[in-house]
Write a structure and sequence with these properties.
By secondary structure, the chain is of the alpha/beta class. The chain is built from 10 helices and 14 strands. The protein folds into 2 domains: 139 residues, Rossmann fold, CATH 3.40.50.720; 160 residues, Dihydrodipicolinate Reductase, domain 2, CATH 3.30.360. Strand 11 and strand 12 form a beta hairpin. Helix 4 runs parallel beside helix 5 and helix 5 runs antiparallel to helix 10. The protein is elongated.
């Protein structure tokens, strides 16, 4: 494998994710990445890649893997095929950049991890939402201690959508647990840590066609008692903030890159208080409390915090410079462990 020049990519799957996201995100990065081959069963998908990049085109995945110029296989196929396609690429000695989810089941994710540990090539899992602007800003706010001890986080995505594509079919690896689920479970685990968790779930099909869930509700609690409440819904008709974070000294809400913070003024002393038995004489809530608040609205800056496309920069640094890739295979497997637990006992198990 070459250690210089652009990374030579073979794109497996030139549809919505491969063409619409991967190709689009690499515009202007020809000095770091170059598509030398494509594999897709749809002739029109192959043709547009050939027209744009002058690359070789294959209908069969095996032929892409046999292409000696392909250094890294960029897998953007149906979710159901991620496991088989990744294992085959690793057996062929290729590096792999794998669109989430790593697999459709935790057992398959563990097999991939085991194979990657023994393979000549390296595996990189595309949990790109780890690098969202607002998420990085919120991590920094929490880490600064301005909110005190954070005890509750709500993560929300969704809107009303009568979806009818392959993402609505369980046989294809569809459903929101494997669509937006890996992104928000990855966020949740970044907040909670990777220790023991309690997992509660509620899965429904509300508005979509097919047989997969389009409404997901998860409650995750770690040993310290922090709770992350995740909702991904295709049936929601009223918008909610994408993030609500509650701490002992302040809270925030965020949608897009706008973050509103309300917290206690640390410069204003708060008198000690103790609970009083007996009849209340000063209304609901007890005695009057003299509190002062600080409020601010922060516009998270992509130029400072980065965006989800930064994963390509990390991929290049890992493959060409030997840097550590910030999404570990263990973390991707941990996401699938939560997804598996969320399915248990539901109609979608």
């Amino acid at each position: 494998m070459s250690s210089s020049g652009p990374i030579r990519l073979g794109l497996a799957g030139a549809g919505r994710a491969g063409w619409g996201m991967h190709v689009k995100e690499l515009e202007g990065q020809e000095d770091r990445f170059r598509f030398v081959a494509v594999c897709d069963p749809v002739e029109a998908h192959r043709a547009r890649m050939v027209e744009r990049f002058g690359c070789r085109a294959y209908e069969r995945y095996e032929d892409l893997l046999a292409d000696a110029e392909v250094e890294m296989v960029d897998i953007a196929t149906f979710s159901r095929d991620h496991g088989a396609h990744t294992l085959a690429a690793l057996r062929a000695g290729k590096d792999v950049f794998l669109e989430k989810p790593i697999a459709v089941k935790a057992s398959e994710a563990r097999r991939i991890r085991s194979a990657a540990a023994k393979a000549k090539g390296r595996l990189y899992v595309r949990h790109n939402r780890r690098f969202e602007t607002a998420f990085r800003e919120i991590q920094d706010i929490i880490g600064s201690g301005r909110l005190g001890e954070v005890y509750s986080i709500k993560l929300r995505r969704g809107g009303f959508q009568r979806r009818d594509d392959w993402q609505t079919l369980r046989a294809m690896g569809g459903g929101q647990l494997l669509n937006w689920g890996p992104h928000l479970v990855d966020h949740a685990l970044q907040f909670l840590g990777y220790g023991e968790l309690e997992v509660w779930s509620d899965l429904k099909r509300v508005a979509a066609a097919g047989d997969a869930e389009d409404h997901v509700r998860l409650l995750l609690r770690n040993a310290a008692g922090m709770v992350v409440d995740v909702e991904i819904s295709g049936g929601r008709m009223i918008a909610e903030p994408e993030y609500i974070v509650a701490g002992t000294l302040g809270s925030l809400r965020a949608t897009g890159n706008e973050i509103h913070v309300r917290r206690l003024d640390p410069a204003h002393p708060r008198a000690p208080r103790s609970a009083q038995a007996g009849a209340a004489t000063s209304g609901f809530g007890g005695s009057r409390d003299d509190l002062k608040w600080l409020e601010e609205t922060i516009q998270a800056d992509p130029a400072v915090r980065g965006t989800e496309t930064d994963i390509w920069r990390h991929l290049h640094a890992a493959a060409r410079e030997g840097a550590a890739f910030p999404v570990t295979t263990d973390e991707a497997v941990a996401v699938m462990e939560v997804v598996d637990r969320a399915r248990r006992g539901t109609a979608f198990a």
